[in-house]
Amino acid sequence: MPPVWRRPALVAFVLGLLGVGFRVWLTARDAPLTNSDEATIGLAALHIWRGEDFPVYFYGQHYMGTIEAYLAAPFVGLLGPTTLALRLPTLALFALFLPLMYALVRRVYSPWLATATVGLLALGSDRIVKNQLIAGGGYPETSPMLVALLLGVLAVSRSEKPRPWLTGGIGLLAGLIVWNHLLPLPYLAAAAVLLLVFARRHLATRAGWTLAGGLLLGAFPLIWHDLHNTFSKSFLAVFWHLQTTGTDPSASERLYGGGLIGVPLGTGLCAPSHCAGWQLWWGPAYAALLVIAAVLAYRSPRTPESGMRLALAVAALITVVSYARNSSAGDSPIESARYLSCLLISTPAWLEPLWRGIAAIARPNWQRLAAGVPLAAGVAMALYATVTLAVHVPVYADAAANQPKVIAALAAHDQTRVYADYWTCNWISYQTGEERICAVVGDDLTEGLNRYHPFWDEVGAARVVTYLAPIGSPLDTTLAAAFPDRPVETAANYHLYLPAGGLPNRR
Description:
single chain, five-stranded mixed sheet, globular
């Protein structure tokens, strides 16, 4: 039996276990900090568990499916409305993602490249871990579903007679992905091309019918929604709206935010909410590596494996270009880098050219050095990003500890109806199991983004309410001017503007 370090599957298992363990530790420390987007999924899970509502889409919008809410509903029912109940499913999804990636890379590239890929994916920057752990809708479940679909496409492409359950499963995954989020469309398109090129003969048989049936079943929530709503609320209309709205940052701002900042953030090389100038070289290097990988795959003999290598490289390039063309890349590059979450699936694509350069002993030393330096630098930055997140954990833990203090202050004054800003409201409603209802107001006290609109109506109908604002925020300034006679109490980093003697609601 070969020693442990010569057994790639075992090494990958150990590395993956360390990655899962790191995320378990983060979850135990309430890191990353929960927010109102995650609480929105929590409210949906709460309503599903109670049988009160079965939402198709993320509350307040007509896209982004609620798979996370349905997965979390049993845990919310068992553990109550806690952040842990929402993150147990996302932890499980990450734990599933790693062996799926190992299986895909092992089949398409090599066992040791698969091990290296798992090792890189086991690391976790702030942006990456947020995508993987926060149940904010659409991200934690996308990667494992996509990799499972690609494995299925590879199996069908290599099979003489694919089994119906396999093609039906591919269709089901594709339908679920389409319902769940728009981001994986480049990878779905690449998978469809692979099927047409390598499995075209199967699509006219029963395999094609089972694939179509699975697709319809997976996309059924989307289809059902569109059949019961106007075209303006349909999937196609929303997709067009998302592609054509927003501000209009300059081309240089999009390139800078989408390529130079977005790629290092989206591939896990940056510290929490910050990408240093010395890290921006990775954007063009990443694009160049993908182009090299695509050329290598294209020049290889035409097989399902080389087709998959080409698909992973091209899908990643399309994802980066599409993101750089979107206004979000120029307007909010730090937060919007979450739209690049699918790039992790293409990790072996950029890794392969460097891996080849190092492994080719016959190459001149300068060529091996040229491949080794950027690989070592990329790994070093990923390690740096993981360490900076670990160092940042006490900040998240302190912020998380403040949330119960705010809820306790509301309970101490027996306040059940609250107005607050968007990033506050829904975690109050969720963590109290809707015993305390919060409605969102803007800085001018008009209605804000209420994703679950019944809360706005319920708080508006209350005779007395409390207003809540982060200390020093624009809303805090507005409230101080609008309600000079209200008693003000401090709870953690918030001001509570309490009703004085039954002071009526002034909406």
